[in-house]
Amino acid sequence: MRTIGQHRDEVAALLAPVLAPRAPEVLTLDALADGAGAGRGYRTLARAVTAPVPLPVFDNSQMDGFAVRSAEAGQGVRVVDPIPAGAVPAPLAPGTAAPIMTGARIPDGADAVVPVEASPPGAFPAALGLDVLTVPDGTTAGTFVRRVGSDVALGAELAPVGAPVTPALLGALASAGVGAVSVLRPVRVLVVSTGSELADGGPQDDDGSDAAGAVIRDANGVSLRAALAEVGAVVRRVQLSDAAEAFLPGLESAVGDWADLVLTTGGISAGAYEVVRQVLEPRGLAVTPVAMQPGGPQALGLVELAGRRVPVVAFPGNPVSALVSFEVFLRPVLAAAVGAPDRPTAELPAAESATSPVGKHQVRRGRVADGRVHFVGGPSSHLLGHLAAATHLVHVPLGTDSVEPGDPLTVWSLR
């Protein structure tokens, strides 16, 4: 059996060619802000963006107050008409002060702002009734003025190639009048759920059970699609039966020229109907068991599909095994490619005892309370409800047969 580290390295090597040279696509800021459909977040720039205008584009007021001439500090000046945001003001004549709102353009002739709090009324709109304002001593040029280009100069680089498209960057681009940018195309993943027992919708009895009586819902397709979208992938999913004669045509049709990566669940163990193993091993899939529980059965390889060699990563079919496998093997690789954060990791004492197969790295589900790790449910790979209730993955390392209260355990935060 491989170790977890060995298999993760193999997954990274398999995916390196499809993660590096992704083609650019041009998207509007609105599309990026909306997540551009599937594959939300973690988009990166394919080309640098320079500022077509300076930011700010004009000198403007940092405060609600009065636009003044700093040379008239200590003098009483006449209060003239106010300057709201969005207005182009008339030049400020000597011996005058103009009430000005935050963000409003500084008039020609003015070089400082006196906060309204420094006036006798102390606030607007009462301060609009002042006839004379005494410019405070010590008022200097630039006081409470946002100078043109003080954030970003005209022609300066707003963001370099490879920069993540963050909310702040989208705001800066919008402020500069940039309507669209070139970003790297997200990784396209085909999620394949296998098993003739799978149903997606279909008739149910009044109590919610399936009328057919021998089918189960496709939890893997739904959960893995969501997990992949969290790290920026665009996902399509398909269900294929265990019938070998129908599996390959269905898979190749779904792959087409679209998929960068195929992720399958089920069909790689030692049963009589392991369709992924039976059909894809002759085409390049390598079954490589890993010393891990759950998620021991694993497979990967470059597989001949739809006239080309496509990376395939194959997980077990039990839903906890599939999600744990994603967290351990695939998420770290995809997250690193798009700049998504790693799962926060800590080493904390166990709150209770547990057993573990000494020859496997066990990944349990847990919660952290009062600085200690509490297990949620047992180790079985079908306990999806317990995984949903957990906040952490708890790692019991290879070579450990038991855990006692107080023993240190590594945990990954899932939330």
* Beta-strand segment tally: 27
Q: Kindly report how far apart the N and C termini lie.
A: 31 Å
Based on secondary structure, the structural category is alpha+beta
* Beta-strand content estimate: 25-35%
Biggest sheet features: 6 strands, mixed
Query: Could you list the spans in which at least 5 consecutive residues all have pLDDT below 50?
Result: 201-206
- State the strand order across the main sheet: 15-12-16-20-19-17
Compute the gyration radius: what is it?
31 Å
Structural domains: how many: 4
The CATH topology label of the largest domain is Molybdenum Cofactor Biosythetic Enzyme, Chain A
CATH class of the largest domain: Alpha Beta
Overall, the morphology is elongated
CATH architecture of the largest domain: 3-Layer(aba) Sandwich
Number of helices: 8
Q: Give average pLDDT, whole number.
A: 92
Q: What is the CATH H-level superfamily of the largest domain?
A: MoaB/Mog-like domain
Residue share in helices? Answer: 10-25%
